Amino acid sequence: MILDLHVHSTASPCSNLTMDQIKAFAGLRGLDGVCITDHYEASGPVSSRDGFMLDGLVVIVGTEYATPQGDLLLFGPDLDFPGGLSADEILARMDAMGGAAILAHPFRKKRPGEERLAADGMVAAVEEMNGRNTFEENGMIAQWKAKYPINTVGGSDAHSLEELGRSATHFPRFVNGWQDLVAALKSGEAAPIINQIFPLPDFLSNNQLNCA
């Protein structure tokens, strides 16, 4: 099963990607499902957080939460957090509720993530392939993989239709809901992939829309 774990809909102020576009084009991009991870928005443009079939597409709603220590993709039963929390505070809350977090684009120049979050196993996975990163930024994860037994994933970080599915994650089992996703992330049953139909372009992430 192939999921794009990092997608922003129009619920994110810096995205123009609509749910109608996601619904119409995700399958054409080779995706079986998407995770909607809007900035600070966990209700999402859909009514269920617990993965469901939207005309054959699995949709799981999480959120992207920015902290001074790095941006986190969060998945769990209750993601309604106040702003201004540190990564340590957020991750402690996620652990207590049985959720999971992914450290997003840890080597992006403008929005890096702290190494200790991966080194100490505080996150379930690290985003190795991000569709808005440069090749250099994505490649730097090799430093951490050589030192720590981290799980890695991929996501497009799409904010527009042309970005949807540029990078994604392969799961050997069917994932339908945040509980399935959390279990797969924590067990390491995931592998980042670059979409061979719509491959990663060689652009500079600094030229992309700036999202907090």
UniProtKB/TrEMBL annotation:
Question: What are this entry's molecular-function GO terms?
Answer: 5'-3' DNA exonuclease activity; 5'-3' RNA exonuclease activity
Gene3D superfamilies documented for this protein: Metal-dependent hydrolases (3.20.20.140)
Coiled-coil segments: none
CDD domains reported in the protein's UniProt record: PHP_HisPPase
Task: List the transmembrane segments.
Answer: none
Which protein is depicted? PHP domain protein
Q: From what organism does this protein derive?
A: Desulfatibacillum aliphaticivorans
